[in-house]
Amino acid sequence: MVAGVDVSAESGDVAAAAPPRRARWAEQLLGIFVLYHAAAVVMMSIPDPGAGMVRSAWRDPTVQHEFRVWAATLSSVGAGEVTPAALEERLWAFAVGFVGWRSAIVRPFDLYGDVVGVRQPWRMFVAPHRFPTLLVVELEEAGVWRPIYVDRSAEFTWREGQFSHDRMRAAIFRYGWPRYRRSYEQLAGWIAGQAAVDFPAATRARVLMIKRRTPTPEEVRAGKRPREERQQAIVLTLDELEARRR
Amino acid sequence: MRRLVGLWERWLEVLRRREPGEALALFRIITGLSLLLNLLPAIRLGLVRVLWMDVSSGGYRGLDGAGSWLVRALGGPTPEVVGGLVAATLAAGLLVMIGLGGRWPALVAGQGMLAISMINNDAKGSYDALLCDSLWILFLAGGTATLSLDCRRRCGRWWAPSSVAAWPRYLAILQIAAVYGSTGLHKVSAFWTPMGGYSALYYILQQPTWHRWEMSALAWVFPLTQAATAVTWCWEVFWPLLPLQMILRAKAGAPGRLRLLLTRWDLRWPFLGFGVAMHVSIFALMEVGPFSWITLAYYPCLLRSAELRAIGRRLRGWRSGRSVAVA
Which of A99, A168, A189, A220 is least surrounded by CB atoms within 10 angstroms? Predict the structure, then answer.
């Protein structure tokens, strides 16, 4: 064995403990099982467009920007005149076919993956979100609105610990996308409920997202800041929430 | 047919291999610790109720019909079920870390983690899935042969030269190769390529969801982030080739110039070195939960026992050297 290679057996430094002798049939079963598990891991690791297969999500500026870059690249390398819209259509058709093919391939492993928990969802940082959102919570007290929580703010930090936990961040990140509207509304309801308890004098709560294009390095160096847009605003009356709670 | 039978026999021969258990023990200890790091902050911040219980029980969203087979079998994510699952998973994670109870705590912890993470799909991360993978491998492996309380009870000391089956460690190597390779292939954005100016990491580090603090200062070291983007993408996409190279290197003396060229350098060290640097950087710059630790738990599985012991000796030497210097 070559020094430093670890995929072969090491026996030199193992003292006693002789390997347990397995029955032949048990050995065969183990052989089949380990192969099946390895195949499950490999097959389920085949990239899965999964959550990205929502046509409305493809209209997001971040995704549209991708189409523009790829279309320009393809056009420049002699693939003919490729427009972003045509590329989007072709990619959608390809992705639908690919998802169907992938589902067929992983079907024999579905039950195993679900029961044992060896699904392989490695869709991590597929693309930077060029138009990320920030959660903002505002309260109305004596007719005046004021922020109590702004994502990543050092000033408006109500329940910052909870909102900053990575699981909550993952949820808030998703709720910037239109397909999660229902869950976002539920989160807003929960936030308003908590605000009603923590700020008894408040009359209304407003939960919204600030969407802003991430500045390019050139813009940062030039001191330019892209325009922010307040969206997905939900206003809830705290008296009603309080009454409902009682 | 005879060839197939021969292949099958060789496969069974691979499964019969035995080796010292340190790599698996380290995998077990770091995995158990990662599970605690996964659950304890959520408990401390009062998020168990908020994230994993239905809106009728104080959660933020409706969770009717949610959860793994276990949660459904237990009657849904009621406060009693979720509380019980969290407590059992935490206790099992502790047992996994200290190595008490053989393989069974890993099964309980894995099923518990799977059940908890599946309750609210919006609030789960890839680290939950990787943790479940790790715990399933540990259930298959056992992993308490050495550096464990089981070992201490059995032999009267923490370390014992007992042998374990090698195939669970091979599965761990396959698993981590699948994680890196797959996540690399998922990165189809132009920003990971020259077309997008290798700007993916710069923009990802500007995302308020993930960064630890505002990082616009990176604009002044943009070329560094470009280099990191290019290297990270290549490192991830080519990671599955590492186990293949390890297999080729294991067959020393086999003929072929190409094989000789491919096996000339031990690529584990550059791959592992970059991986450690990358995960430590992710931990320092981003808030992505315990993903880095769960992933790093796999790294000892790429090393032989003798190499792990040599690293241990070097660390001890470095520590005692430092104490002498301080004194």
Answer: A99
